[in-house]
Structure formats: C-alpha cells, structure tokens
Amino acid sequence: MNKRNRILLLAGALGLAGGLVATRLMTRSRGAVDVREGELPTAGVLDTLALAVDVLAPTFAKGVIIRRPAVVALAERLELDRRAIGRMQKLRNKYGSGPLMLPLPIRKQAVILTPEHARRVLDESPEPFSAASSEKRAALSHFEPHGSLISQCPERTARRRFNEDVLEHERAVHHMVDKFLPVVDDEAGRLLAKARTQGELDWDTFNAGWTRMVRRVVFGDAAAGDQTISDMIIELRKAANWAFMHPKKTGLRSRFLARIQSYLDRAEPGSLAAVAASVPQSGDTMANHQVPQWLFAFDAAGMATFRALALLAAHPDQAARARAELRSHPGIDRQYLPFLRSTVLESLRLWPTTPAILRQSTRATQWEGGTMPEGTGILLFTPFFHRDDGRMDCADRFAPELWLKDDKVRDVQDRDWPLVPFSSGPVMCPARNLVLMLTSVMLGALIGEDDGIHRLTPSQQGRLDPARLPGTLDNYSLRFVVGAHNDAGTTGW
Ligand code: HEM
C-alpha cells in the first residue's frame, strides 16, 4: 500500500472522528446529550466513532465510485469488512431495532439495523426515501449530472423508464441475446488466448477483455477499440470518489458525454445503443446522461465475475456442477444458466459491489421508536445483512442454493432477511437480468470444456477457505492457471 493510500485511509477515519467529537462537544455545551429530534435511539459518541472508523472509513477509503486497488488489498489483509460487520452486530445488540441516529456534524444521519426497516426504506423509494442523496449527487454528477439515480421526479420517471426499457429489467433474457452471446464468446476467447501465452489469467488481462466486451455490447463493434472513452470515465470516476471535495472536470465531462451521444446517434445494430434508439424518449430522458451509469456499473459486474471464478476454483464440486450445466445448455441455451447465475449472485452476496445503499428522506417519517426528521441521510450497509453469522448459517460459505429457489419463495425469504446486491423496490438495478446473463455466460466461457481456467495459481491457493471465506476478496490480485481441466480432480477442479 503506498503512502498516499495510507494517508487517505487515516485521513478519512480521523476526519470523520474529529468531526464527530467536535459536534458532540458542541451538543454537550448546549446541554442536549442523547435525546435528539424525535426519539429514535441516538448512538453514543464512542459508538459513533467506532462506526466511523470500522464501517464508514474503510468503505469510503476503498473508493465508492472507483476502487483503489491498494486499499482493497489492505482491506482483505486486515479483514476490514468482517470487522465492519462485527461493529454493526454490536450496534444492533446494543440499540435494538433503530433506525439508529448518528450525531454527525453537518447532517442528520441514520443507520438501518433490521430487515423490516431495510425493506421499508427500499420499498418506499424514491418517496419519501430518495435515492438522490446529497453525497450521491455530489459524486455521480462528476460524470452523469442528469442520471436517473440522482434525479428527482418528474424527470426521474422518464429516466428510470428509459433504463428499464433498454435494459429490459422485467425479462430474464434480453431480446438481443443472439447478438450479445457471440460477443461474450469472442472476447472470452481472446482473453483466454492472451492468458495462455502468459501462463496465467490475471485481473488486467481479464479486465481489458471484459471492458472491450462492454463497449461492444453498449455501443457496438465500432467501439471495440475505443479505449479513450473508457479512460475518460475512469478519470471522471477518480474525481467522483472525492464527491464535492474535488472540482468538476467540466471540459472532460462535456467531451465524454458528446462521445456517448455520437455512439447513440450511430445506433449500431446489435448494440444497446440501437435498442435506445427504438424506445420512447422525451425531452427529460437525456439518454447520454444515462449511459455513463451503464459503463460505470459494468465494472462492478466484471469484478463480480472474476470473484465468482475464484469461488469455483476453490470449490471443485460446485465447479463440476457448473460445467455439467454448460454441457446441458449448449449454444444459445446458455442464455439462462441458473447455477452459474446463482454463482455470480453469491459472489455479490459475499462481496457486494454496492456495500452502501444510500437514501435521504424527503419528509419527516414515523417509526416505532419515534420520528425521523426530513432530510435525514439513511445508510443501509448490505454486508451486515448478507453476512450476519448470527442469523445465517451459511454467512461465510459459498451457498448458491440461496438463489436457486423460485421467485415467490425468494420474495418471502427476502422479506425475512434482505439479500439485496442489486437493491430492491422501485430503485432496484434495472440491469439485474442483463448483468446475470452476460456474467454467467462469460464465467461459463472461462471455465470451458477443454482449455479454460482450472484453479488458482499455487501461490494463491488457500486464499479462499471454503469453511470461512474472507470478508473482503481483492479481485485485483487474483490469478488463475489456464489449461486442460479434469473433473476427476487430477488437474485441480
Ligand atoms: C454487478 C453489477 C451491478 C450491480 C451489483 C448493480 C447494483 C445496483 C444497485 C444496488 C443499484 C441501486 C442503488 C440504490 O438503490 O441506490 C443500481 C442502480 C442502477 N443500476 Fe445497477 N448494478 C450493476 C450493474 C449495472 C449495469 C451493468 C447497468 C447498466 C447496463 C446498471 C444500471 C443501473 C441503473 C440505470 C441504476 C439506477 C436505477 C434508478 O435510477 O432507479 N447496473 N444498480
């Protein structure tokens, strides 16, 4: 970890901590200690500090909009995510159901502690729990100032609708499947060929192929080699990590949005840009401001796929099952691969790519414990729900069976205990199905019959203990051996 990242992590923690202490002292001097607006429980100063250090600081230091690889590596080494979950469990045990108010300096902030409250916040979005929270607006406006996720109604309605129409959120299989699957196969073949010459598959090789695939799916083959557009969004996302603390790169943002617009105008057949040209739009839609979210979020899908590959490499029986599924779903039948989709979902449950789901209340709301004031920021920390070993036997194990139930059973299960890597309710990710289709097919192609990935490299073995998977999995340092596999186990599956 370099000096800059160490300083960053420390500064994040200390900044938050310092601010908290300052507010607390100011509050004390006015004579108001624990009973604050409404009567929702309010965390004490030490608990708030502990939450800032164990939960907030690592989450933000890792990079909310684009990850900082050195901090992710440190988080795996120090088990920071496991520590964060432990902190949340302690808070729940101490303060009960919450929502728990935090005495923060510049804003009202609540943390969700129960499944019922998680469900309520997600179901009642965007009103009264707006997804366009101040910090999300500050961050995402660096590259998509009119994106659906940070828009308010009525504009939001048109933008959400556009995303749903193009990404086909209701359909398990996107109607362009026959165009997209060959693109995935082609890019998987290219990246495996490169890995073979290197003797291993590493993150950089995978990510380069994945990003090419994304450009082809989103814009068409004309964008296959357009590294410039990918570099542009990386630079804008780096600034976005700092939200309002970094000036906007408005010139770069304009050039980036114009480049997207030129692909949308071109509407190459076989791409999402062509689908975008075919769906209804209004003056509010601002299609070129919706596409940055796609490019940005496909990055998360790549990370989830690479970690899913690691899960299969560490679980030979499950890998054999995945390969059997591929044999029984040849060619275009790969459009729906339940087991491989569940494997990607498990990767996202264990290591969520959106660990902090944020909301902000647009009016005062009533809870069993009291009133939450208007304008309160709300944090739903998903790893706490996804990996609570007090409530889930399989919290730290690879459990694809969690996702193999039919939708109705899953709905009931979700109400009991929220597993929400794609969020839920009216702001749920509209690309969930598209993502699961593309990632499962890519994963299948990587573990292919004859010459695919068959295990983690020797130096990496032991990194994923099936009995207790790590709290964080640093995707950037994963490495796999490429070669002929053997389900009997002689080569490592
Ligand atoms: C593994 C990959 C992905 C994950 C885990 C993921 C997760 C999420 C989550 C958690 C949200 C909701 C955030 C909130 O509630 O505040 C969201 C929203 C969204 N996602 Fe994804 N996403 C992924 C990939 C994608 C991709 C590839 C696209 C587009 C091609 C996409 C498009 C969107 C859009 C447009 C929204 C905003 C929805 C709205 O404004 O209502 N996502 N995603």
UniProtKB/TrEMBL annotation:
GO terms for molecular function: heme binding; iron ion binding; monooxygenase activity; oxidoreductase activity, acting on paired donors, with incorporation or reduction of molecular oxygen. InterPro entries: Cyt_P450, Cyt_P450_sf, Cytochrome_P450_monoxygenase. Belongs to the cytochrome P450 family. This is Cytochrome P450. It comes from Massilia aurea. The lineage of its organism: Bacteria, Pseudomonadati, Pseudomonadota, Betaproteobacteria, Burkholderiales.
